[in-house]
What we know:
Blueprint: H1 3-7, E1 12-14, H2 17-45, H3 49-75, H4 83-94, H5 101-114, H6 133-148, E2 151-153, H7 155-158, H8 160-163, H9 166-173, H10 175-194, H11 197-224, H12 244-249, H13 256-261, H14 277-287, H15 299-305
Antiparallel strand pairs: 1-2
Helix pairs in contact: 2-6, 2-11, 3-4, 3-5, 3-10, 3-11, 6-11, 10-11
The structure holds zinc ion (2 copies).
Amino acid sequence: MSDMSDLDVRGTVPVSWARRNTYLVVLVVLPLLALPAGAYAAWGWGLGLRDLLIAAFFYTVNIFGISVGYHRLLTHRAFKCPRPVRAALVVCGALALEGPPSLWAAEHRRHHKYADLPGDPHSPWAHGDRGLGPLRGLLHAQVGWFYTERRRSSRAHWVPDLLADPDIRRIDAAYASLVVASFLLPAALGGLLSWSWAGFWTALFWGGLVRYAVVHHVTWSVNSIAHRFGHRDFTTRDRSTNVGWVALLTFGEGWHNWHHADPTCARHGVLKGQLDASAGLIRLLERLGWAHDVRWPDPARLSARLSRIPS
Ligand SMILES: [Zn+2]
Ligand SMILES: [Zn+2]
């Protein structure tokens, strides 16, 4: 159990034993079983091109949905967009199976408020820096906190704006159906493209189960790796870092140090060579007239926060 959250329960509500066990199965155990199962199946039977493309398509939809929809749009209000575009981006995020949008945003706003301090739901520094502390901290930040935390962020406290939004309330209410859709859509695509039940089942495995496990661990690596390893190019009061390979996999979210330096900024990769596909998507939406009031980086703020000359 985390030492930190017990000290600080501001803006939190207790989680029931049943719900914690659901989190344990869906967020911790199933993905941890799916990943080696996928590796074993790929090794033994190979992975067909059709299933690979289906999994890659849903991975892309999910990562953009989390990064652009859940994170930059809902949690940090880095840009505005018309209702149908907003709803579509948030539904893409919900299909990643990381929880209903209002709960995800509530946990994440609390993370920013207390980042790496008592009250942060998932700091890799929660168990200190001595002995097994760093390893326990990384496991806690990656997936452990879903089960060990006895309290979750209060939505009424952290996201009253989202609870007042009828579109978000509707997507929250439809979350269970979206979980089913997240498995059924890739499976149906596989069945239709191959016109066979075998195609349905293999796409369910690769495009459903393995894809969601990979999406989860890629996303959670921002919470663990990008608060523990990597470069600190900017001055922040937390221990957030910039990690190139995490940024590549998360479409820009691994440039996490700048994100903590300027959380409402729509671009996370702001230094030379820092690819940020999510910022690219927001730019595209802006050009199409589907995003406005985008908070692009402010050069004065950027140079003021630089902690070292970037290499
Ligand atoms: Zn962070
Ligand atoms: Zn954030």
